[in-house]
Design brief:
Blueprint: H1 11-25, H2 38-42, E1 46-55, E2 76-78, E3 87-92, E4 98-105, E5 113-118, H3 119-125, E6 132-141
Parallel strand pairs: 1-5, 2-4
Antiparallel strand pairs: 1-6, 2-5, 3-4, 3-6
């Protein structure tokens, strides 16, 4: 027996329609709510507020996504979307320490994080013991123009 609504439509069809339309009503953006559009980021506006972690010496010498070897003593960071060579001011939200870093890698892979920083950067930010902190990322310089 098929259950029908007052208008004669099968109940199962209406349920299927409700499920299908709810999938399209969800936001499709994966960018955090605090992110600024890329045009504003290039002008030096705050890019993101979120959690960052650091990665250390066990990755030393491995190739980053930009092709250069990872150096834990360099002031560098990984970011999901900013172009390689972008300079970003990273500020620890708790102690207000900040450092300017160069993007040379992609990451982090964890959805709840906005960046990964080198060991040297983590030291300057006062986050080595904590491992993960809340931070503000602000673009301070666009990457240099590519030579043709």
């Amino acid at each position: 027996m098929i259950l029908r609504t007052r208008l004669g439509f099968p109940v199962a069809a209406l349920a299927l329609l409700a499920v299908a339309t709810s999938a399209f009503s969800q936001p499709t953006t994966t960018m955090p709510a605090t992110a600024t559009p890329p045009a504003a980021a290039a002008a030096g506006a705050t890019v993101e507020n979120g959690r960052i972690a650091w990665y250390g010496k066990k990755f030393a010498g491995r190739r980053t996504a930009s092709g250069e070897a990872y150096n834990p003593d360099a002031l560098t960071m990984a970011h999901k979307t900013l172009p390689f060579g972008t300079h970003v001011k990273v500020t620890n939200s708790t102690n207000k320490k900040s450092v300017t870093l160069r993007v040379n890698d992609r990451g982090p892979t964890q959805a709840d994080r906005v960046g990964d920083v080198s060991l040297a950067a983590a030291s300057q930010l006062g986050m080595v013991r904590a491992g993960v902190i809340d931070a503000e990322l602000e673009v301070v310089a666009a990457p240099p123009a590519k030579k043709r």
